[in-house]
Specification:
alpha+beta; Fructose-1,6-Bisphosphatase, Chain A, domain 1; D-Maltodextrin-Binding Protein, domain 2; 2 domains; 7-stranded mixed sheet; 16 strands; globular
Length: 266
């Protein structure tokens, strides 16, 4: 397939993602963040009716014949492993924030083709943000072109950190006099903000599932950013065990300083 044909296909995929997110936005209107019932799937991982409602809706709208599906809220039967095109979805990333009324959650839709995250879309109804993008087509925030930050160094940067990780003390020891650490829920939302240039970088040393990050990784790469994972094999998505051991997202020029800062902290 030529680059022009691929771009045409991805443009159609982006349109499908955008339409699905609009449908999800409408479906979420009957739920009130901060005033929803939740239960726990395992440990302290909450799930709500909104999660399962959006999961069902997206599964009806997105996959077509021959396409695979991987979602946090759908039992994985591994049939996706034989598919070239796989939708990797978190119907509601940041459920803890959704339940408590913190506006840091989103619907996350990623498309993986031959193991590569190539297109993605994020919807945060609480803030009115929709971020869409694909390889070779760039990224938009609410329809306006966006890209990763042009900040040349970590000095003065805004780094988004997991609210849970900060609470557990996992961000102690970083040089807050050098850069600002902003606790933020939803790893997908954090990646989207980096892709749109609303923050300079984000990283986590805690394992994440592919459904947490597929859309955001596609967006960061489409916006001119760079992604670092814990192992070379983790750059390929739609793996049998869909988990990454760590993740860094930032403009390429910031990566050496970020890696040095992580190593310095130990």
């Amino acid at each position: 397939m030529s680059g022009e044909d691929l771009a045409t296909d991805l443009a159609a995929d982006l349109e499908r993602i955008g339409e699905a997110l609009e449908r999800a936005k409408a479906a979420l209107q009957r739920f009130t963040p901060g005033d929803v019932e939740s239960r726990f799937k395992q440990g302290d991982d909450p799930v709500t009716e909104a999660d399962t409602t959006i999961d069902t809706l997206l599964r009806e709208l997105l996959p077509r014949d021959g396409e695979g599906w991987l979602s946090e809220e759908t039992r994985d039967d591994h049939s996706r492993l034989g598919r070239r095109r796989v939708w990797v979805v978190d119907p509601l990333d940041g459920t803890r924030e959704f339940v408590t009324g913190i506006p840091e959650w989103c619907v996350s839709v990623g498309l993986v083709v031959d193991g590569e995250p190539v297109a993605g879309g994020l919807l945060n109804p609480a803030t009115g943000e929709t971020i869409l993008g694909a390889r070779g087509l760039g990224v938009t925030l609410n329809g306006q072109p966006a890209r990763v930050s042009a900040r040349p160094s970590l000095a003065g940067a805004t780094v988004l950190a997991s609210r849970s990780e900060v609470k557990r003390g996992e961000w102690q020891g970083y040089r807050e006099e050098l850069f600002a650490i902003r606790p933020t829920g939803s790893v997908a939302y954090k990646l989207g903000l980096v892709a749109a240039g609303r923050a300079d970088a984000t990283w986590t040393l805690t394992p994440k599932h592919e459904w947490d990050v597929a859309a955001g990784v596609a967006l960061v790469l489409a916006a001119g950013g760079a992604i670092v994972t814990g192992a070379p094999a983790e750059t390929r998505f739609n793996r049998e065990t869909p988990k990454l051991s760590r993740l860094i997202a930032a403009p390429p020029g910031l990566l050496p300083e970020i890696e040095a800062e992580i190593a310095r902290r130990g």
